[in-house]
Design brief:
This protein has 7 helices and 10 strands. It is α+β, with helices and mostly antiparallel strands. A hairpin with a 2-residue loop joins strand 2 and strand 3.
C-alpha cells in the first residue's frame, strides 16, 4: 500500500513528517559490515534499519537536533542474547557482550555516516511502540526547547526476529511542507505496521486535518 500524502500531519503546533520505514525482507543481502576499525556492538540489521530510517529525514543544517529512540524491543532482544551467552558453558563472555545491551549502539552507523552530534534519548514503553517518544518530542518542539526532533521506533517481529525501524521528524507547524511518499513495504507484516505509533499518529493527524480527497491510497 502506498499513501501519497502532502503536506505533513500536525499535532497541535507540531508537524510530523511522513514516516520512513526501513528493514530487511527475506532474501535480502546481509547487513553491511562495520566500516573502519570500530566494530558494531549492536545487532547489525537493527543498526542498518535505524540508520536508513533516520537518514531519510536528517538535515545537516541542524546537526544537534535530539533523537529519541524507542528501544523496548531491542532491549528485550539484547537481554535475551546476553542471558543465553552467560548460560552457554562453551562460550567465553566478551566485553562486547555487555556493551551490546546499551541501545545507544543502534545509532553508531547513523552518527558515522551523517555527523549527527545532538543529544540522544532511549525510551522503553510497555506497549513497545513510540507513543511516549512522540509525546516527549512534541513537548520539546512545542516548547521551543528544540527546533526539530527525530523519533525512531525499533520494532522486532516475534515470529521471525526481523527488525524494522520507523522514523519521523517533528518540527513547528507551518514550516515548508513535505511531499514525501509513505510506502508500506511489501515485506512489512500487518502486526508491525499496526504497532507503529508513528504510523498511527501520522495518519490520524492527517485525517483530522485534511479532507478525505486530499490523499489517495493505492
Amino acid at each position: 500500500m502506498t499513501l501519497v500524502l502532502d503536506p505533513p500531519a500536525v499535532r497541535g503546533r507540531v508537524a510530523l513528517d511522513p514516516p520512513a520505514i526501513r528493514g530487511r525482507a527475506a532474501g535480502d543481502p546481509p547487513a553491511r559490515p562495520a566500516t573502519g576499525a570500530r566494530r558494531l556492538v549492536a545487532d547489525p540489521e537493527a543498526v542498518d534499519a535505524v540508520c536508513g530510517a533516520l537518514s531519510a529525514h536528517y538535515t545537516a543544517d541542524v546537526p544537534d537536533a535530539p533523537v529519541i529512540l524507542v528501544a523496548t524491543d531491542y532491549c528485550v532482544y539484547a537481554a535475551d542474547q546476553f542471558a543465553a551467552r552467560c548460560a552457554d558453558p562453551d562460550r567465553r563472555l566478551r566485553p562486547s557482550d555487555s556493551v551490546a545491551l546499551e541501545p545507544s549502539g543502534l545509532l553508531q552507523r547513523f552518527i558515522a555516516e551523517t555527523g549527527w552530534r545532538g543529544p540522544g534519548y532511549a525510551l522503553g514503553d510497555p506497549a513497545g511502540d513510540g507513543g511516549a517518544a512522540l509525546r516527549l518530542a512534541t513537548g520539546l518542539v512545542a516548547s521551543g526547547r528544540a527546533g526539530t526532533a527525530y523519533v525512531c521506533e525499533v520494532l522486532r517481529r516475534a515470529d521471525t526476529g526481523a527488525f524494522t525501524a520507523v522514523a519521523t521528524r517533528l518540527r513547528p507547524a507551518g514550516a515548508e511542507p513535505s511531499r514525501a511518499v509513505v510506502d508500506r513495504p511489501a515485506w512489512l507484516d500487518d502486526a508491525t505496521w499496526e504497532r507503529s505509533a508513528i504510523v498511527r499518529e501520522y495518519l490520524r493527524a492527517r485525517a483530522d486535518r485534511l479532507p478525505a480527497r486530499t490523499g489517495r491510497a493505492a
